[in-house]
Amino acid sequence: MPSSRPTLQNIADEVGVCRMTVSRALRNKSCVSSELMKRIHDVAEEMGYKPDPKISQLMSYLRESRETPVRETLGIIHPLPAHVDPSDSKSPTERRLIAGIEKRAEELGYDIDRFTWQAKTMRQKRLRDILEARGIKGIIILGTRVSGEDMTPLAEVTSSVIVGRSNYRTPLALVCNDHYYTMRLALYELMARGYERIGLYIGKGTDAVVSHAWHSIFTYYQNKMQINAPELIALPERVEKEAYQQWLAETSPDVVISNDPGIKVWAEETGLSIPKELGFCQIDWIEGMENCSGVDQNSETIGVAATDLVTHQLMHDERGISPFSKKVMIEGIWREGPSLRRRLREVGSYPNF
């Protein structure tokens, strides 16, 4: 008798049959005669054979998947502030993130289930119960709207990744645009075109969502270039036409960086010619904005990378909250458009910052 843990092959050698016959006999399949089945069971008992539950589970899954294809499901969790209508909740950037997630999930053989979640209408524990009831073990949380929320009740029972940006209190894996690089790239391009009075106009909420990265790099640029013009930085509570047009008249920038496409239209309504009298740089460029120059944050690629990360966690049975969070940042791409004048020199021919 073997001294190590007996295997199906050991039993097969002892009885004088193939390993598959032993497997079928131990699962009491009718294709094995009752006499032979009893003989195999007796030998297995004498040898002290015990099935490995992990291997049994895997083999059962493989057999079932051959008969009926099995597709696991990933959940997309879209937290929203209390004042946002869930029926009108997805920004263009969020739609691109979701498109990247769904594309990669399909390639990897996963289904997708979407959940819009607001703390005022549903407790996290209730959402967690729904995920468990549907057998969803991996989730991707959109980090584009809500800040300061503790996501522990969801994260402690799932493989979890935040996509977009993380202002949550729970240290989870994160995939997002490199917002510091995005602002640097925008400023490099504007400097290469000879712009000197560069203005930044973004809402305070947007500034918080990107963890103040755009504002921080812009302020550092002003300090580095010895530009004493704090009035060129505007972080209003709400981005509104009248306030913006008043800011334009008072500060006279020669180009404005913003993520709000209305900024360009509102400037034109004052009679300013773009790009002759005022340039506009879209810091969150997406398809459909071909009339603007700006930085494409690669949102679909971010969604793909987030899906790869959460499926990696699932395959390695990584759940719950890690003592440290993994961060993956995707660089943006410059998109040329007619809202800026042409370059006067090559990008990079000025001080690094």
Topology:
Blueprint: H1 8-15, H2 19-26, H3 34-47, H4 53-67, E1 73-79, H5 92-108, E2 111-117, H6 124-133, E3 138-142, H7 152-155, E4 159-164, E5 173-177, H8 179-192, E6 198-201, H9 204-209, H10 213-224, E7 233-234, H11 241-251, E8 255-258, H12 262-269, E9 279-285, E10 293-296, H13 299-315, E11 327-330, E12 333-335
Parallel strand pairs: 1-2, 1-3, 3-4, 4-5, 5-11, 6-7, 6-8, 8-9, 9-10
Antiparallel strand pairs: 10-12
What can you see in these coordinates?
This protein is of the alpha/beta class. The chain folds into 3 domains: 8-67, lambda repressor-like DNA-binding domains (434 Repressor (Amino-terminal Domain)), CATH 1.10.260; 73-178 and 300-333, Response regulator (Rossmann fold, 3-Layer(aba) Sandwich); 179-295, 3-Layer(aba) Sandwich (Rossmann fold), CATH 3.40.50. The protein contains 13 helices and 12 strands. It has helices spanning 8-15, 19-26, 34-47, 53-67, 92-108, 124-133, 152-155, 179-192, 204-209, 213-224, 241-251, 262-269, 299-315; strands at 73-79, 111-117, 138-142, 159-164, 173-177, 198-201, 233-234, 255-258, 279-285, 293-296, 327-330, 333-335. A 6-stranded parallel β-sheet has the order 2-1-3-4-5-11, with helices on both faces. A 6-stranded mixed β-sheet has the order 7-6-8-9-10-12, covered by helices on one side. The N and C termini lie far apart (73 Å). 35% of the residues are buried.
